[in-house]
Amino acid sequence: MQTAIVRHILVKNKELAEQLKKKIHDGADFTKIAKQHSTCNSAKRGGELGEVKKGQLVSVIDKLVFSAAERVLHGPIKSQFGFHLIEIKFRMMH
């Protein structure tokens, strides 16, 4: 079984997601940005989703988490909840 350690930021519009991504690329702290802007319950943990199993997340996010490069900020990715910025800390096979 594949699992991944993931953190993310969820916002309502693409423009805000793009602005936040730029701030993080320019050196802003992901945890602080997540706490200030993310609408997900994970915001209080700095965007940390912890260990997730394949199939546990919304399909568009799940596909990204289990195929995209690790330690890179991906997004914005649209789901029915809004726009996500995703960082895959690492993936594991159990």
What does this structure look like?
With 94 residues, the protein is an alpha+beta fold. The chain has one domain: Roll (Chitinase A, domain 3), CATH 3.10.50. Helix content is 29%, strand content 37%. The chain contains three helices and four strands. A four-stranded antiparallel sheet has the order 2-1-4-3. A hairpin with a 2-residue loop joins β3 and β4. 27% of the residues are buried.
Oligomeric state, counting identical vs distinct chains: single chain
Q: Uncertain regions: pLDDT < 50 for 5+ in a row?
A: none
Helix content: 25-40%
Structural class: alpha+beta
What count of structural domains? 1
The end-to-end distance, rounded to whole angstroms, is: 5 Å
Report strand order across the widest sheet: 2-1-4-3
Average pLDDT confidence is: 96
The CATH architecture name reads Roll
- Count of helical segments? 3
Look at the structure and give the CATH class: Alpha Beta
Q: Using DSSP, what is the number of strands?
A: 4
Radius of gyration: 12 Å
Q: State which percent range the strand residues make up.
A: 35-45%
* Element pattern in H and E: EHHEHEE
Biggest sheet record = 4 strands, antiparallel
Overall body shape: globular
SSE blueprint and pairings:
Layout: E1 2-11, H1 14-25, H2 30-37, E2 48-53, H3 59-65, E3 73-79, E4 82-93
Antiparallel strand pairs: 1-2, 1-4, 3-4
